[in-house]
């Protein structure tokens, strides 16, 4: 299964642990991701697009009047926030993926290691072996 397919299943299904991890990671890395998007990722993209500052991209709805602020839809800020969300969601996905891998490995080790025979089983095996010797 490809990483994109796993991410899609994670984003759509998820469970309570995944959600809790997402909230914790989002809170812990929120300011770092915001800085990454605003200060590292968006400036080169804006430069490539002719010096556009994404935070300034707006659709005016109402001009400023005396004593009131202008009303606008801040498309650029929304784009910045969407990129931040995708970075956090991907980081959480990678963390949960790693935890699930560790869980699978642990379960395989538990299955691979046979349990030591109990005292009763050992005694029965000893009796079986003795009976085989007598019948041979």
UniProtKB/TrEMBL annotation:
One example GO MF annotation: mechanosensitive monoatomic ion channel activity
GO cellular component, one term: plasma membrane
Location in or out of the cell: Cell inner membrane; Cell membrane
Bilayer topology: Multi-pass membrane protein
Protein family per UniProt: Belongs to the MscL family.
PANTHER family in alphabetical order: LARGE-CONDUCTANCE MECHANOSENSITIVE CHANNEL, MECHANOSENSITIVE CHANNEL MSCL
Designated name of the protein: Large-conductance mechanosensitive channel
Organism, as annotated: Candidatus Filomicrobium marinum
